[in-house]
Specification:
heterodimer; A: mainly alpha; F1FO ATP Synthase; 3 helices; B: 319 residues; mainly alpha; two-stranded antiparallel sheet; 67% helix; elongated
Chain lengths: 78, 319
């Protein structure tokens, strides 16, 4: 297996494995938000705001993985 | 029963709205088909449509130099955003009416929403103090992202590179905003707590007290204090690391989301030769949403960190 094969493998694995955690994390945030909304439908505005904030923080980890994948796949890393 | 005649009575809505809708409905398919038909013009054989390959350059391309400073295409885009924001501000505040016009009420709604957000999160006094930075970050990042989606923005080429490129896709913009946010939050923290601000990172008080107690003979409480003091120092180091990591995480969150979105759109256009009609409005709307959400997250996280930094760090007494 030569270098270009490994490069493709690395890019695929990086994004794939890097998205497991954030996927579960975002799902948990959504679950928490929906539970809170079910208990207290009047606090809808605040709950939505904090939910979006927490989703973005969890998703940032997936974005780090995406960044490394792009760097590997487009031959930016020497 | 008399109906008020608005614009053209037979259409039911005003003429400017109809013009806008017709233009939008016409522009999007015409531009897509124009792009594809232009691909045919390059080849004599119609079955070989020429689809230009995507070249994504991660660093922003330098267009010209002013003296020793290079001016990249993202700097041009960010100056355009600033120009648009200044023009909007001038138009809105030139002759403010008590019953606002449309653009004035739109900007009033945005600013009022941001102000309530600041006040809800940070309290009355602190909300007012944090409001300028938070709303500037929100408007700048939001308008950068939205203006990147104007049709034709990325199409003007200068030699080989685009003349204008969305400012958020440059890591320098994200880094600059993140450094500004970090410095301001630290400044507010030190201003509110004086040097007690550093107590959350460097907290050897209990550790030293435990060692002192060892020499005065109270062994049991000294061991407890040494143990907890060690934990305090360890947690302090972790807090310091996570405080400094905010610089990097802010940068990469904004940069990664924006660049990832742009690469997604490019790759989608490259892969779907003719059948992309339904996907494109979806991706376009998604990009607009992501842009505004990232702006909100940047501003909101700055606000939350500032609120946490300003809150007084009182030592909790363990029994």
């Amino acid at each position: 297996m030569d270098a270009s094969t490994f490069k493709l493998l690395a890019a695929g694995l990086c994004m794939g494995l890097g998205a497991i955690g954030p996927g579960i994390g975002v799902g948990l945030v959504g679950m928490g938000a929906l539970n809170a909304l079910g208990r207290n439908p009047e606090a809808r505005g605040q709950i939505m705001t904090y939910m979006i904030l927490a989703i973005a923080m969890a998703e940032a980890i997936a974005i780090y993985a995406l960044l490394i994948t792009i760097l590997i796949a487009f031959n930016v890393v020497k | 029963m008399s109906k008020k005649k608005v614009g053209c009575g037979c259409l039911g809505c005003s003429i400017p709205l109809v013009t806008f809708i017709v233009l939008v409905v016409l522009i999007i398919p015409i531009s897509i088909w124009g792009f594809k038909l232009g691909g045919f013009a390059h080849s004599k054989n119609p079955s070989q449509a020429f689809v230009p390959t995507i070249n994504i350059s991660l660093p922003a391309e330098v267009i010209f130099h002013i003296g020793p400073l290079p001016v990249t295409n993202t700097i041009i885009a960010s100056f355009l955003t600033v120009l648009v924001l200044v023009i909007i501000a001038l138009v809105v505040t030139r002759k403010p009416k008590l019953v606002p016009t449309r653009i004035q009420s739109m900007m009033e709604a945005i600013i009022e929403w941001l102000y309530n957000f600041c006040k809800d999160t940070a309290g009355e006094k602190n909300g007012r103090k944090f409001f300028p930075l938070v709303s500037t970050i929100f408007l700048f990042v939001g308008f950068n992202a939205l203006m990147n989606l104007i049709p034709g923005y990325n199409s003007i080429t200068y030699g080989e590179a685009h003349l204008i490129r969305g400012a958020n896709t440059d890591i320098n913009t994200a880094l600059a905003l993140s450094i500004i946010s970090f410095v301001c939050v630290t400044y507010w923290g030190i201003q509110a707590n004086k040097f007690g601000f550093f107590k959350q990172f460097f907290n050897p008080g209990r550790f030293i007290k435990g060692w002192g107690q060892l020499f005065t003979g109270k062994f049991k409480s000294s061991l407890g204090n040494i143990g907890f003091g060690f934990l305090d120092i360890f947690v302090g180091i972790l807090e310091a690391i996570s405080y400094l990591i905010r610089l990097i995480s802010f940068t990469f969150r904004l940069f990664g989301n924006m660049l990832g979105g742009e690469i997604l759109v490019l790759v989608l256009f490259y892969l779907l030769v003719f059948g992309g009609f339904g996907i494109i409005p979806g991706i376009y709307g998604f990009e607009m949403l992501i842009g505004v959400i990232q702006a909100l997250i940047f501003a909101g996280l700055t606000l939350v960190f500032a609120t946490m930094a300003v809150a007084s760090h009182s030592e909790e007494e363990h029994t």
